[in-house]
Amino acid sequence: xxxxxxxxxxxxxxxxxxxxxxxxxxxxxxxxxxxxxxxxxxxxxxxxxxxxxxxxxxxxxxxxxxxxxxxxxxxxxxxxxxxxxxxxxxxxxxxxxxxxxxxxxxxxxxxxxx
Amino acid sequence: xxxxxxxxxxxxxxxxxxxxxxxxxxxxxxxxxxxxxxxxxxxxxxxxxxxxxxxxxxxxxxxxxxxxxxxxxxxxxxxxxxxxxxxxxxxxxxxxxxxxxxxxxxxxxxxxxxxxxxxxxxxxx
Lengths: 114, 125
Prior knowledge:
heterodimer; A: 114 residues; mainly alpha; B: 125 residues; 3 helical TM bundles of succinate and fumarate reductases; 4 helices
């Protein structure tokens, strides 16, 4: 079996596992904002700073970034044929997602300190 | 030996025939790209809302502005469509709804249901 096939299988599984978490998390957050929206800055900050909420949020961003990577990669590979352009867009997407990951990590962590 | 007609192998969106399931599928991709592109704005607003009481007020203000509300509606449609199309995809993975009449019907349901569901969430939010 080629390693390419294994990697495709992993991407397929990763896409579905992260999808399930994203579906649950975003649905929960929409429900929260409908039925119990944060009343003030203090309430919001306190809520986010709770360990299980921060953890769930970090897991959300991690899932979102991996899910986006697999999806955007598929789209670029399907529609962008010139190799140099495809590679450039893939690298830019990867770097952009990585930057979003570091940024979201920083946002969630800094809500827990000070 | 039987000769088969050579089939066109391409993903040229201008030349591909688009039955209902492929519209649902391409909308799955478009909604995904939309969410991907809005991600930095989302992290920015989260950052702002957690930074200070003033930042929180600004973030709330963005959501209450006309522009913010319009983008939110678009984002909600993208999420609901992406979720429903994704669930349809997973159900097909486990061999549910693979036959053509069901396949086409679920594609139509996903495509048509996403708008009213998104609108409903947007109204009550």
